[in-house]
UniProtKB/TrEMBL annotation:
The keyword Chaperone does not apply. One of its GO terms (molecular function) is 5'-3' DNA exonuclease activity. This is DCR1C protein. It comes from the Eukaryota. Keywords: Exonuclease, Hydrolase, Nuclease. The gene is Dclre1c.
């Protein structure tokens, strides 16, 4: 039996290019989310989820997410997390130009929101290993740099944790102008909220 269906891709907000699939056909409408991270009210603003002034009738929603588990009952919003990280980074980097932050990001993509907001708010570019991975995301290129002489680093190497133990950044920097760096590490990870449920 054949049926014509319309498939609409909706932004999932998880990492660049991530989408949710909305399937619409004679037998109803289905939303398949995949991993997603939407801000409060963002789904309500998606015009393609609406028909006129009302939300489309969706018969089934398939949630395929790492965090669909009771231990992740409360995950702070992206805005709350950003506010906390901003306060920490600002208080640390304002101590001296030798106080630097290492963002211990375990994946290559998905942290663009953090990099852009830190750079805009603090007027400090984020050091990354290479810019070519962002070539198709021109909106972030102004906020990242390959110049290691910055106070915010998101550089990555396989032995990141070992590098940090020696109070040096993964890019190898340990000092500027002969002055040792004071490094703190921030690990932006949602997993933390499942490990520390209290």
């Amino acid at each position: 039996q054949k049926e014509d269906i319309e498939v609409t891709l909706l932004p999932a907000g998880h990492c660049p290019g991530s989408v949710m699939f909305l399937f619409e056909g004679e037998n109803g409408t289905v939303l398949y989310t995949g991993d997603f991270r939407l801000a409060k009210g963002e789904a309500a603003r998606m015009e393609l989820l609406h028909s006129g002034s009302r939300v489309k009738d969706i018969q089934s929603v398939y949630l395929d997410t790492t965090f669909c588990d009771p231990k992740f009952y409360h995950i702070p919003s992206r805005e709350e997390c950003l506010k906390g990280i901003l306060e920490l980074v600002q208080s640390w980097t304002s101590l001296s130009r030798y106080h630097v932050v290492w963002l211990n990001c375990k994946a290559a993509y998905g942290y663009e929101y953090l990099f852009i907001n830190l750079s805009e708010e603090l007027r400090i570019k984020v050091h990354v290993n290479k810019l070519d991975m962002f070539k198709n995301m021109p909106e972030i290129l102004y906020h990242v740099t390959t110049d290691r002489h910055t106070q915010i680093h998101a550089c990555r190497y396989p032995w990141d944790d070992d590098c940090f133990r020696g109070n040096r950044l993964p890019c190898g920097m340990t000092c500027q102008n002969g002055t040792p760096l004071h490094v703190i590490s921030i690990k932006p990870s949602t997993m933390w909220f499942g490990e520390r449920i209290k």
